[in-house]
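Reopening this one. Same input as before:
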Amino acid sequence: MLMNNRLHVQNCLGAIDGTYVSVRARVEDQPRYRDSKGQVSINVLAAVNPGMEFMYCLAGWEGSAHDCRVLKDAVTRPNGLKVPKGNTHRDYSFKGI
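Same output, byte for byte:
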C-alpha cells in the first residue's frame, strides 16, 4: 500500500541493499576491486528504516566481494547491523549466512 508516496509494508523493519561505487585503485590492486561488470569499485551496503532514513552503512569491501560476504561482515561486527530478535528476512538468497 502506498502512504505519502512511499510503499508501506505491514511489519516491515526497513530495507537493505547494496551498490557499487567507482574508485581508483593501484594497478596491482585492481583485479580484486573489479565488480561483476568489470568496473573498479567498492561495495556499499546500506539499511534504511520504514521511513527511508539511513540506519546503517558499510563501505569499503572490494567490488569482487559477494553480497553475502558483505552482509555477513555487517551483522557480525561488534557495532554492525542489528536485526531485532524474532525478526527475519524473506529473501532466501542469504541462506548461507
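So the earlier flakiness isn't reproducible anymore. For the record, The chain has two helices and five strands.
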